[in-house]
Amino acid sequence: MKLHIDPRTKLFMIFAVSIIVMIPAVSPATWALRTGVTLIPLVLLLFEKKYIPALAFTVLYAVAAVLTLLFISSESTGVLYALLVGYCGIIVQFMPSVITAWYAIKTTKIDEFMAAMQKMHMPDGISVSLAVVMRFFPTIKEEYGSISDAMKMRGILFGGGKVGKMLEYRIIPLLFSCVNIGEELSAAAVTRGLGAPVKRSSICELKIGAADITLFAVLTVSTAALIILKTGIVG
Amino acid sequence: MIELKDVDFSYKGTDEAGLHSITLTVNDGETVLLCGESGCGKTTLTRLINGLIPHYYKGELSGSVTVNGRNIAETELYELAGTVGTVFQNPRSQFFSIDTDGEIVFGPENIGMSPAEIMKRKEQVAQDMELTPLLGRSLFELSGGEKQKIACASVSALLPEIMILDEPSSNLDWKAISELKNIISLWKSQGRTVIISEHRLWYLAGLVDRILFMRNGVIEHEWNSREFAGLDTDELKRLGLRPTKLEERYIREFGDGIFGSSTEQMRSYQSKDGDIRIRDMFFSYEKRRKKELAADPDKCTLSIPELDIPRGSVTALTGENGAGKSTFLRCLCGLKKSCTVKLDIGESVYSGRKLLKICYMVMQDVDHQLFTDSVTAEVCLSMKDEDTAKCNGILESLGLLGFKDKHPMALSGGQKQRVAIASALAADAELLLFDEPTSGLDYAHMTSVAKLLKQLSDQGRTVIVSTHDPELIALCCDYVLCLERGRVKYFGEV
Fold it and tell me: 0.95 exceeded by the pTM?
């Protein structure tokens, strides 16, 4: 089954999921809320047929949750505890947002994205720049892969024994090729009329479906609930 | 009509060569070829017409450029979008979308056409250029030839009266080139003006009306098609141009082998002692266990049970775009972990990670494999123990000694390629693999690559070079290995 979500819903989803999982949870109610919302990125992974990452994420999350509940308190000190807190924080508070953002970027066509931005009356400058960034992700991945291959052939995948070089060898060629591609890409885009001071049209029709409405409702209610719990308006 | 009057241009901030006193008139409906060696100013001239100069690339510009009565310097780029269309050399960096449909409608959307009209345009262009089967696909899964077709279609969708193509055949196989040729003749028959900058000349003979030869930023010669056809190979060679006829002879010879069904005329190779033996080369892009691969070779993307390659020779690796040439090279040098390939050289057997030590691939985009800040450091990086004498020896044999302290990124394309080769030699790689080293090169550079490959094999290295360039094969290759759908179609002497 293919899930189709409107780009606007995806944007709202990134925003809402990030707020809910990143705000520190202390009471059982906020914990429950956060865990509930974390199910959303998990379901998204399943829809994209990423079964192994989904399983890995579930396990990591469960471990982190148990560790947090059993061992970490406000009195924890020491290096081991610092590492534990770091691990749990990354898994519980960042991974759900990262997965949601990955999903949004992977499943949104540039055309769809531009149409959605226009519907929201975003200035062209902003939507075009964001579109270019999105267009660049697969390119960076491709370039990064070629550079890794080249490093393997040279036997310097790990910097040839020098830790400091590891990053340098990887980043410098990547920057060179991305700058070149970026320059050629924008030259090609402007010769095809990008940046004309007319209202850009789009053949892409956006439809709000049941999935959008459900997600929107769930996320709005969860965000509201979190605000109420946090500010302590009730109880 | 395009009119250039006394145009002088020099780039700001780079050494890229400019143009000097260019005066040129191109009439409506004319097809013009720009030729000349790399850096002669062909691309710069096209940038003057599509407005990228002076609006995108900055520099000193004098004289006047008018296109259809509009002064380019005073016309914004987006206003030119419906008048001049440009197909760039590298499809990788001219696609804005990730799917074919999105790419074709990108231009019309930018100028705010109505959705209904855009759909009509898309259908029309797809029908004219016969690319209906490509609609709705991801751009990343297309072959080089298909990408170039989509690039042409996406420019054509704006219906510009003037089409500019900048070295469009660089990454194409012979079949894709003939399709490109059809597209150009379609545009010609529609009465559009076509300007092509190109090194490969054979496929354009009979298609272009006028040929301009450029050198050092000046238009040095001008021929009509009849005069141009009359130039003999020696004259072309003197001008540094690729032949206009020779390649076609090779297409008949090799092209039939690659695209046709008959392979009888190829003398197939009889293995002898001392050959390098490639065996059990099975690879699939789907995730499978190694044992399953060998057990079920029919399902593999790449399946070569056994192949002997003579040591110290140059082998051309040919085949259609998408036949598995790059995959073959990447498997052979150990970059595909799941490939089961084993390599017998003399008494030793190499497989898995050991392949990385014995094989070295010079990539098509050589920028990816230069990591340090000087040529010497680049070579020394490949050595276990730094050995200055050996390093200098290698640099000297490749004519790089004079550049030993330069930054690799500051060198020209051909020099960078040689630095990459130098680092392969420093690593004592026995088998040197080249991925399309001559795509987009002019005659002089192509022949120097050919000499270099010959030199490497004379030193006892075994060279495998993937190429679409029949002239390169004619100049330096001893054997031809042709792949088809990941299988060996034939392996024989040239």
Answer: no
